[in-house]
Amino acid sequence: MNATIAVVAGDGIGPEVVGQAVRVLEAVARKHGHTFHFPEALVGGCAIDRYGTALPDESLALCRAADAVLFGAVGGPKWDDPTAPVRPEQGLLGLRKELELFANLRPVTVLPALAGASTLKPEAIEGVDFIVVRELTGGLYFGPRGRREIDGHEAAYDTMIYSVPEIERVAHVAFRLAHGRRRLVTSVDKANVLECSRLWRQVVGRVAQSYPDVTLEHQLVDSCAMALVREPRRFDVILTENMFGDILTDEAAQLTGSIGMLPSASLGTGRRGLYEPIHGSAPAIAGQDVANPLAAILSAAMLLRHSLGLEREAQEVEAAVGRVVAAGHRTADLARPGEPVVGTKAMGALVVQEIERL
Q1: Are 249 and 132 in contact (CB under 8 A)?
Q2: Active site includes 31?
Q3: Tens digit of pLDDT for each residue in 113-159?
Q4: Of residues 11, 246, 275, 333, which has the active-site annotation?
Q5: CATH for 1-105+265-358, options being 2.160.10.10, 3.90.190.20, 3.90.1150.10, 3.40.718.10
Q6: Predicted confidence (pLDDT) per residue in 43-67, tens digit
Q7: What angle do CA 215, 216, 217 make, to 5 degrees?
Q8: Which one is catalytic: 31, 51, 129, 250?
Q9: Would you call 190 a catalytic residue per the annotation?
Q10: In the 3-class helix/strand/coil scheme, how is 261-303 assigned residue by residue?
Q11: Is the pLDDT assigned to residue 329 strictly greater than 80?
């Protein structure tokens, strides 16, 4: 296969972890006779510094021309003024919008060797394997917002808006995924309070009728947050809107022992997608060779699966990560007191070695 993968490393630890993901993809290409091209694009704070915008036209054009986008992270103290008209996050949000990526897939799997790294008891998280499907283009993050005076006082507002087509298309993604898994969709909303959630629940219920072999259950977001800690094994596919998904997946990351273990894929109607670890730019540890690259590497596995259709290669990358962790190798975020620690580059090298052995 000949494929072009746009590399958008971004800010903070982004270049370090994405560098190891590219290293893994290069190993996959060598082993299986593929040719992968890795053109680089600036998005986020680094793009603001050079171009004055978080998403330069040339970066967007490069990503549009690619088969897939491998993304790192954006942001940092240098650009941390919440009132600034141009912010790093605008680059990622704009890229998702311009590429028409509306469904964010975040798998949550607890590797047996990392059960002790979680703050929950090992017996509570053993066998956890679910995926969160988060809607990406609607909700509070994209609705009208602003400030105005109410009763003589300054007030602010953010508006949650969802349309029927927006809900339908992401619901179909969730049900199709569930069909190939354990056939359970948990749709998460706040329908006891929010009108948007009432529409969400109605539309998801209608979509479910097209998938008679998949069970649908509805759950309020606060109840779901509690259940993720109390009984995470019960979930298969969680379907939810933008902000709820953002919050719940960060909570779910702690089941795995570290947010540095969770990959994600942002998909649209075609095969092109954007793949990124869900962690942030972690500027405090940037450039120190201590960041965990495994979420970025597992994101590369999702890229192989969803955009390039290379299921065997994706499974090899995932198996290699599992074997490295099972062998006891840990970055600082995963290590218990007294355990030996490996750096970002060393962890990437270990995964490459396992891929070559498999």
Answers
A1: yes
A2: no
A3: 887 778 888 888 888 999 999 999 999 988 999 999 999 999 999 99
A4: 246
A5: 3.40.718.10
A6: 999 999 999 999 999 999 999 999 9
A7: 125
A8: 250
A9: yes
A10: HCCCEEECCCCCEEECCCCCCCHHHCCCCCCCCHHHHHHHHHH
A11: yes
